[in-house]
Amino acid sequence: MSKHHITTTINGDEVDFLCETSQTLLDVLRDELRLTGTKEGCATGDCGACSVTLDGVLVCSCLVLGVEAGGKKIETIEGMADGDKLHPLQRKFVEHVALQCGICTPGLLVAARSLLAKNPDPTEEEVRFGLAGNLCRCTGYQNVVEAVLDAAAEMRGA
After folding, report:
1. pLDDT truncated to tens, each residue of the chain (158 aa)?
2. What are the DSSP E strand ranges found in 21-117?
3. How many C-beta atoms lie closer than 10 Å to residue 20's C-beta?
4. Which of its termini does the chain have fewer beta carbons within 10 Å around, N or C?
């Protein structure tokens, strides 16, 4: 199989990589670029563990082909913190104990960031709806929702 040369932007940095036509964006991120924060949970788009944003749209990277990333802007969990300074969502997840095993956490954080970018003052129902594509078997979601609402308030300066 021949590989395709792809140029894209990941977390603000221009990135070049080679991938086969059949490789998913998730496989490229993890196996070719060693960005292992994005997790594979189901490989069918049902769990949200592999959530990233692609040109500002929340997607399951297991359902996007790596070749489709050419010329796009991708944001992953690795781009959330600013060096050692955690993003408010990351900090609030820790403060609210909104994580346990950690498999779903990167996807939940990326989905929450995407939600707050579009709606900086969501209701509890809107947070639950915005995170509905992300499955977690450990937390029961209440602490996750509270963390997102608390981060939203902090980010608004409330």
Report:
1. 689 999 999 999 999 999 999 999 999 999 999 999 999 999 999 999 999 999 999 999 999 999 999 999 999 999 999 999 999 999 999 999 999 999 999 999 999 999 999 999 999 999 999 999 999 988 889 999 999 999 999 999 97
2. 51-54, 57-60, 73-75
3. 15
4. N
As a 3-state breakdown, the chain gives helix, strand, coil percent values, each rounded to 5, of: 40, 20, 40
Sorted by where each starts, the structural domains of the chain and their CATH numbers stand as 3-79 (3.10.20.30), 88-156 (1.10.150.120)
Q: Please name the residue that has the structure tokens 């010329």.
A: 71
Tell how far CA 1 is from the center of its chain: 30
